[in-house]
TrEMBL record:
GO terms for molecular function: chitin synthase activity. It is found in: Membrane. It comes from Allomyces macrogynus (strain ATCC 38327) (Allomyces javanicus var. macrogynus). This is chitin synthase. Its EC number is 2.4.1.16.
Length: 738
């Protein structure tokens, strides 16, 4: 008799050790039987804190309490729920059959649940409190009533939802940070200026020209101007489009300008006319002339010799066409801007907010410098006076421009009136843009940061690749002999399960040291299958015999789905020279699910929890459900191995083929480092040429299952073990059983 878990009574067919009248299930007519009915009632109802009648405690009777008194039952439930021997102290008493009673230490917590066993939570650690605070901050904006409205019922379920959602938010936030840095940092450190092209780029093009600081694409022209400019591609055609003609009057006797925007910045119309007359008469090429009707003719031919003329374009249609053709500003060298008065051969430029204005014609005809020897002075040191006959700008603004020749006036021209005058400069004197030296330095620094980040990303990929090569040098470990359970969950698979069963049986591992456990998630017939999945699995394993009785257990689900029933089969699977013990768990559902589409289906997570809860109760001496007790009976008496002796659990999907040496490799890795609680192998696509979808999955599998896992293993922590092929450590008696 096993002292930890009671042996089943043969007369009850291994049910719960109660009388035949209450434990035998009538499977022929679908009756649950009194034993399972009592268990189901206990699972459905929360155990009362009042005294419990022994006839209604089907599950707790598995502890073989002889007297069946209520105080003994409650004490036994608390004793089993305590999983931490430090927090539980023996009171030295026994009840009836000698069940040891324990009391909880002060400060411990018990959570009420729909489960038949109280769950011992223990004290909240500091890490747990910090985590709960983070969860509250991230999900506090979602009220409980909204979760209830969405079907999330119960405080425990809500808290689980909040923690999962918090994890998702943290993943999203941590993904946004590096992406945002890559996208935003360059904008912050090096904001995008107006699109610019330098002279070399324009000359190398086949459709671009330069006109008054703008780069024009002649293919976008909708007038004759595009055709006229075609022979001058790559050149400066500013002379053919005289912007100063915007100051001209639309007719004789008119006091307005052709461009009405100049009315806001022209302070003296007569001075504007005088300055315009100076421009025409002082043309260095000597080609400009004004007809009687006021038209300007004889514009200098681009790149031509003096007195070689070309047509002039300055009508309203021309300005609209120029605006349409403009694709960028001309990028100038910042070194052309600074100058002294001694640089008589250089043009007069000023810079305002990266814009460069050529004020040579304005300074020559509208400003008077009052010093005899200008070669010894800078512009800002020379007394200046506006020429009242030709200075059409506001005097203060004109003086600021005159004193600032060769410098940046961005900080001096900040008033609203200055901004209006600057709009006039944009139309009359704009020459292009110049990138400030500081801006260039900051952009270079930002580019270095981006290059460093890019290099780190590529270095990680390179390191992952190099690390994965370590696993190419395989050293065969010694033969292991630890008891290992092979867990194979299945849903609607068919004959494809044969590959998994055969590969597990053919592993280079002692057949007596491995147990094949197949969990069929529901009595479901998959598409293209001739029989339900449990039946196919049993046929592949070679099971022969009568159908066993279905037993109840607590499942994952809502409402009535929290209760489920399953059958347990066991035997020996023979494949070639191998003879491997197996157990099949078929989740068939309650009788009222028989006509449903998926009877007994509760999901893969429920299949995993079946074994997790089973080992938890076996190793911690907790009361088991009828199903768990039946599973214990099959492993202990049919297979012949005490469940407490299993040390490792290998999880393999039903459509996965396992290499012969893989099981021994994983067990050896666990044995060599007792700190490991889980390991995984490398997964590859076996049918990569079946379709284009499977072909592209090869790359994804290699990145995630080879490079990624190998890189994480260097730090001793693999973030995610794939469910298709992983091994976990089971706390066994070698680690200390209670």
């Amino acid at each position: 008799m096993d002292p930890t878990v009671p042996e089943p009574d043969d007369s009850t067919n291994g049910a719960l050790g109660v009388s035949d009248a209450t434990a035998v299930l009538k499977s022929s007519d679908g009756d649950l039987g009194e034993g399972n009915r009592s268990a189901m009632e206990l699972l459905k109802a929360q155990p009362s804190t009042n005294e419990l009648d022994s006839s209604s405690i089907g599950l707790v009777k598995a502890t073989a309490i002889s007297t069946g008194s209520s105080p003994a039952l409650r004490a036994n439930r608390f004793q089993i729920a305590s999983t931490n021997p430090i927090n539980a102290v023996a009171n030295g008493g026994t009840s009836g059959g000698g069940v040891q009673q324990r009391k909880f230490a002060a400060g411990t917590r018990l959570r009420k649940s729909v489960k038949p066993d109280d769950v011992y939570l223990g004290e909240k650690s500091l890490e747990r409190k910090v985590w709960l605070f983070i969860v509250t901050v991230l999900t506090g904006w979602v009220p409980d009533w909204l979760l209830k409205l969405c079907g999330v019922q119960g405080k425990d379920v809500m808290q689980a939802w909040r923690e999962k959602f918090a994890l998702v938010m943290m993943v999203i936030l941590t993904s946004i940070v590096p992406i945002s840095w890559l996208e935003v940092s360059n904008m912050l450190l090096c904001p995008q200026l107006t699109i610019t092209l330098n002279l070399a780029q324009v000359r190398a093009s086949s459709n671009l020209v330069i006109a008054n600081g703008r780069v024009l694409d002649i293919t976008k022209s909708r007038t004759v101007l595009g055709k006229v400019l075609k022979p001058y591609v790559g050149q400066d055609v500013s002379s053919m489009i005289p912007v100063y003609m915007r100051l001209a009057h639309p007719g004789f006797g008119s006091t307005t300008h052709a461009d009405t925007d100049f009315s806001a910045c022209v302070a003296n119309v007569a001075a504007a006319d005088g300055w315009l007359a100076k421009i025409v008469s002082a043309d260095p090429a000597g080609t400009l002339s004004v007809m009687r009707d006021g038209r300007l003719v004889g514009c200098q031919k681009p790149g031509g010799a003096p007195r070689q003329t070309e047509s002039c374009f300055y009508s309203d249609a021309t300005w609209r066409d120029v605006s349409r053709m403009t694709v960028a500003d001309l990028l100038l060298d910042p070194n052309i801007v600074p100058r002294n008065m001694s640089d008589v051969s250089r043009l007069s430029f000023v810079t305002v907010l990266t814009k460069v204005y050529n004020l040579t014609t304005f300074v020559d005809h509208a400003i008077i410098y009052q010093q005899d020897n200008l070669a010894r002075a800078k512009c800002d040191k020379v007394p200046v006076t506006p020429n009242m006959r030709t200075n059409f700008l506001a005097p203060e603004f004109a003086l600021t421009l005159a004193r600032g020749i060769g410098s940046d006036l961005s900080t001096q021209l900040t008033q609203q009136s200055d901004l209006e005058d600057l709009r006039c400069l944009d139309k009359l004197f704009f020459a292009g843009r110049a990138t400030p030296p500081l801006y260039t330095t900051i952009c270079a620094f930002g580019n270095q940061i981006l290059l460093a980040i890019t290099g780190s990303v590529y270095s990680i990929i390179l390191i992952k690749f190099l690390v994965s090569l370590m696993f190419s040098f395989r050293f065969k470990p010694a033969q292991m002999n630890a008891d290992t359970m092979c867990f194979v969950p299945c849903y609607t698979e068919g004959q494809s399960m044969r590959i998994t069963f055969e590969s597990l049986a053919a592993c280079d591992y002692d057949d007596d040291r491995k147990l094949l456990v197949v969990v069929c998630d529901g009595n479901i017939t998959g598409k293209g299958n001739a029989a339900p999945t449990p039946q196919i699995a049993l046929e592949l394993l070679g099971w022969r015999g009568y159908g066993p009785i279905a037993h109840v257990y607590h499942a994952i689900g809502k409402g009535t789905e929290k209760i489920n029933m399953a059958k347990v089969y066991s035997g020996w699977y023979k494949f070639k020279e191998h003879r491997v013990p197996y157990g099949v768990i078929a989740k068939v559902g309650k009788p009222d699910e028989a006509k449903s589409a998926k009877p007994g289906n509760r999901g893969k997570r429920d299949s995993q929890l079946i074994l997790m809860n089973f080992f938890n109760k076996v190793l911690n001496q907790r009361p088991m459900s009828p199903f768990e007790y039946e599973l214990y009976y099959h492993i202990k008496h049919v297979v012949g191995v005490d469940p407490k002796l299993y040390e490792y659990l290998l999880m393999v999907d039903a459509d996965t083929r396992v290499e012969p040496d893989s099981m021994n490799e994983l067990v050896a890795a666990m044995v060599n480092d007792q700190r490991k609680i889980g390991v995984c192998g490398e997964t590859m696509v076996s049918n990569k040429w079946a379709s284009w979808v499977t072909a592209i999955q090869v790359h994804e599998y290699y990145i995630n299952h080879h490079l990624g896992k190998a890189f994480e293993s260097i730090f001793g922590s693999v973030t995610c073990l794939p469910g298709c092929f992983s091994m976990y450590r089971i706390p066994s008696c070698s680690a200390g059983c209670r």
